[in-house]
């Protein structure tokens, strides 16, 4: 069997997605991958179309690991979010083909299921603590047991309006002192209102210094969060040692990592409790499986990134890996734009707070290419830039 064609498709059904279709010389046999990198979509599309696709023509699609090594190591200038997202798309498409050839879902090829479904957490963000509590109650009624809590920090509303501020939940002016007061107060309120049973986590979004992250983690200990996500910036991951030394709050990190070696020191030193890598940005299922194996040896669980800015193809890949690995922790879930259903079929579905995938061969997803063409790329779909009150750039 040989790869005969590689197509890159860019579509915007509510938001931008970059998709990869690998076709073979077997009639009707193809695989879909996801190459979406929010805000840098065209860079990944160009890498695939101009550099990677020509290398795939004529190759055996069944040689997934060999292709992974060839594309990762053969570039010489390896790694980084653009190339690893492109590699992830190839990897997902090849696993999709592999499953179709075998007549089995991908989780079966990874060793078979270790669970019936993947426990998911729901974003229950809000303008204040009461709205978050109400959102959690609504999610509990749907069967969810785990919840993310992000709150608008009240004092930011007094910052002056300026031309450089986009006033959305994640791009209000940010100052660390009000934030460090608001989050413990939020958790105190949620525990008083909801009790100890809900599994509640919070995402710092890399906004704090190591000492500030230590202060926040210590202040949250009494409220036993499920985990504190990305408490520091990823460039100097070793700073998590300070956070770990000063609290017993479970820590999660990895959303901005691109390969296993970025995870390695955090795993071997047991500086985190959950690995939060994004399958679409770390080279796909092949790399995700290797990271999970490393983490298992150190009693660390996987909690794959699952935002709405990666396609349902990656969300399906998340759940296939979740189903197969023994050290699954929790899976982030997202609500997609309604237009998604016009383009994608066969993605994972939620039932009683858990994510499921079908037993269809491969990843179980497909793309309506004609429908995708009706949603052209939208060049202004970028992540917002967070700033401080004085106008300086802050990590989003």
Question: Could you describe the 3D structure shown?
Answer:
With 396 residues, the protein is of the alpha/beta class. It folds into 2 domains: 3-104, Enolase-like, domain 1, CATH 3.30.390; 109-362, Enolase-like C-terminal domain (TIM Barrel, Alpha-Beta Barrel), CATH 3.20.20.120. The chain is 36% helix and 15% strand. Strands 4, 5, 6, 7, 8, 9, 10, 11, 13 and 14 form a 10-stranded mixed β-sheet that branches. Strands 1-2-3 form a 3-stranded antiparallel β-sheet. It has a two-stranded antiparallel sheet with strand order 12-15. The longest helix has 22 residues, at 81-102. It is globular and about 60 Å long. 46% of the residues are buried. Mean pLDDT is 93; it is low at 156-171.
Keywords for this structure?
single chain, 396 residues, alpha/beta, Enolase-like, domain 1, TIM Barrel, 2 domains, ten-stranded mixed beta sheet, three-stranded antiparallel beta sheet, 17 strands, 36% helix, 15% strand, globular
